[in-house]
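quick one, 203 residues, struct below
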Amino acid sequence: MATVIVIVGLTVALFFNPLWINFEQERTGVPAFTGYTAEQVREATGSILSDVILGPPEFAVEVNGQPVLDAAERSHMVDVYNVMRIFIGVVGLAVLALVLIVWTNRRRGWAWRAVARGGAALALVGVVIGVAVLFFFDAAFLLFHLVFFPQGNFMFDPRTQRLPLLFPDQFWTETSTAIAIGGFVLALAVTLAARRRADGLPD
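---
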């Protein structure tokens, strides 16, 4: 389980960062959607990401003296911040557990085979998630939000609000696909490396 959580955390970190997000925003035409310049989009998004990851969760960024997010959008982002705190905490505990278990049993085959099993299980799950994202993205996206944001404050109007313009559907579709593929590749690499490490070691 620790292996699964750590791989998921690493995969999310690969794409939940300014480099990927700015690239994907420009690729999907976010500056044209928002009416901001590319630099303004980067600054606004950077401020939002900073508030999500580091806090405090104010989300009060402005462009040309006007708030980017309204009260409803800021409320949703506070919920995102709270979910991220839990996610980061769980990943951190999983990293500590995995390092402790593997390091203290690094010369025992069972530990490496357990890591391999975790990676293999996640790779299989990644295939299922990838198929769901590819063919049933809207349903999967809605289910994700219903699970993590049951209060329901995640529906926004792109005609009057900026959040769906900064992060449009195409952004989420392509990012979710990239995460599924990246997670699969990383899980497969961990599985193969752990199995090779286990070969020849006593239980």
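The radius of gyration is 19 Å.
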